[in-house]
Amino acid sequence: MAAKAHLIDPSECCLLLIDQQAGLAFGVGSVDRQMLLNNVVALVKTAKTFDIPIIVSTSATKVYSGPLMPAISQHIPDVKVIDRRNMNVWEDEAAGNAVIDTGRRHLIVSGLLTEACVSFPVLSALGDGYDVSVVGDACGGLTVASHELALRRMASAGATMTSWIQVLLELQRDWTRHETYEGARSIVETHGGGYGIGLSYARDMIHPV
Predict the structure, then answer these.
(1) Residues belonging to the active site
(2) What does the record list as coiled-coil region(s) (predicted)?
(3) Is residue 183 part of a domain?
């Protein structure tokens, strides 16, 4: 099944954050964990900037995984966190209905761990006819190999693989879009590494003649 070839429209999508919890982040071996957290925060800020609904679900908060990481929760204090038992968000009534209730048919997904709590709902949503974009650098797996294999399985099923910076640039597309310019630029400067340094330099040092 091939993914539909179209650019992300902020009016059609919602962000699904799955199990971004410290207890699970401890097990991530596919990427530097601080970089992973940087990417997730950037993605959350992007969704806020473009007024995209955010669904947050956690699991095993009391017995192992802990709450949503504070570095993330501080940016979305108004978003209710839905705790669940099932590894698959799509099979949890409250979390699954929260996604359905947005009315959005394009899911942007970030979560831990890629091998299970990310891939299971992605495959289920695809089976129900949703478009799904998996933000690969805002997901973490136990090992590099198992993370990449899970991404490959989701891609083969029809999910689109992307990165947080591609999501932001795809939503912005034109730097003359003034309503989101400041928010998008600030996210890139704060979280975008060398690209962010370049944007900051351009703003402060390059002036029209």
Answers:
(1) 117
(2) none
(3) no
